[in-house]
Amino acid sequence: MENVFYWGNLVLSYGVTGYVMFQFMDEMYSPKYKEKWKYIAFYLLFVIGAISFNRIGIPILKTLYGMIAMCAISLALFKSRSKKLILIYSLIYFLYIIWIDVLSVLAVTVITKLTISIVKETSGLL
């Protein structure tokens, strides 16, 4: 039963992360294609890739995957004024995500009175 919760947590966590990332890209850029299945396919590939990198257990690889995936998806599916702009927006987005993760770990440690190392074991990016 614990395994079901673990996988459910991964799918939900990265599903929401992917959804927010795609919403961000949709706000920042114009879509290249009218076919929704392409966006759904890339979304599913992102979630599967994120779960795979999470299973490796090296935080910097998870973060690098997210940044590279966002740049690749932005270039593949969206129109932008410049490629440099895509890199800048991706970096800003992931710095924001990292800060939110740090703040959420700190908030959980204060609320639950657990140590940071225990909370980090169950969090996303850290």
Tell the overall outline. globular
Order of helices and strands: HEHHEHH
Assembly type of the chains comes to single chain
Counted beta strands: 2
Roughly what is the average pLDDT, rounded to an integer? 85
- Tell me the strand order in the biggest sheet: 1-2
User: Main beta sheet, described?
Assistant: 2 strands, antiparallel
- Extract low-pLDDT stretches: none
Quick rundown:
With 126 residues, the chain is mainly alpha-helical. The chain has helices at 2-28, 36-56, 59-77, 83-112, 116-122; strands at 30-31, 78-79.
Detailed description of the structure:
The protein has 126 residues and is mainly alpha-helical. The protein has five helices and two strands. It has a two-stranded antiparallel ribbon. Helix 1 packs across helix 2, helix 2 packs antiparallel against helix 3 and helix 3 runs antiparallel to helix 4. The longest helix has 30 residues. It is globular and about 45 Å long. The model has no long low-confidence stretch (mean pLDDT 85).
Blueprint of the fold:
Elements lengths: L1 H27 L1 E2 L4 H21 L2 H19 E2 L3 H30 L3 H7 L4
Helix pairs in contact: 1-2, 2-3, 3-4
Provide the descriptors you would attach to this structure in a database record:
mainly alpha; 5 helices; 126 residues; two-stranded antiparallel ribbon
